[in-house]
Here is the input.
Amino acid sequence: MFSFQERAQQLNGIAQTDYDLVIIGGGITGCGIALDAASRETGRNLKILLLEKGDFANGTSSRSTKLIHGGLRYLKNFEFKLVYEVGREREILHQNARHLVLAEKMLLPILKAGSLGKFTTGIGLRLYDFLAGVKYEERRKMLNKEETIQEEKLLKRAPIIGGGLYYEYRTDDARLTMDVLKTACIKYHAKALNYAR
Ligand SMILES: Cc1cc2nc3c(=O)[nH]c(=O)nc-3n(C[C@H](O)[C@H](O)[C@H](O)COP(=O)(O)OP(=O)(O)OC[C@H]3O[C@@H](n4cnc5c(N)ncnc54)[C@H](O)[C@@H]3O)c2cc1C
Here is the structure.
């Protein structure tokens, strides 16, 4: 299905088919819609076509910071509901694609003259654990100065007063998009064509 050798045949098939759903754009949104529609009980008989003007995932979906949401930054803006939602979504993605969604340890250094102190950081990270439903073994750990420098030896010693350890989830965004599309096409028989504006 993804081979150029079958392209003429594919174009021909598309020209002769009436589609129920045509999706424009082969980034994570379009590929997600294709998989969602094709995999629903009610979507099994739908004819679904996705068209991408360039290569699949060549837009924003290969240029993200590769974090699965990075929910911590929303906490800074007091977007509690969003932190709750993305925490749960992150876990669903981790369960669905364990080969592509990996836990990554993050260190938040606390500086003498920084905007966040030890206490506020501790409370913030604890709140994040609670709202995002972080599993026990990945909950935040507060570190003293020596422990922080042990974790990251390249930090300048003088301004450090401590640190906070927590987890984000990292992915390969383009591969994740391709895996979603491949599942939609191979498992659920959606059709997709690239270089088709
Ligand atoms: C710097 C940066 C960092 C980010 N970091 C994160 C992060 O850490 N975590 C996170 O979850 N999200 C992050 N995001 C957001 C995330 O990357 C986007 O929300 C997501 O990739 C959007 O996907 P999309 O499918 O809507 O758009 P795109 O991936 O851009 O897909 C749209 C597609 O439509 C195609 N297209 C357009 N017009 C046509 C046409 N006429 N015919 C056919 N095809 C067409 C384009 O070629 C493109 O491939 C980040 C975004 C940026 C820019």
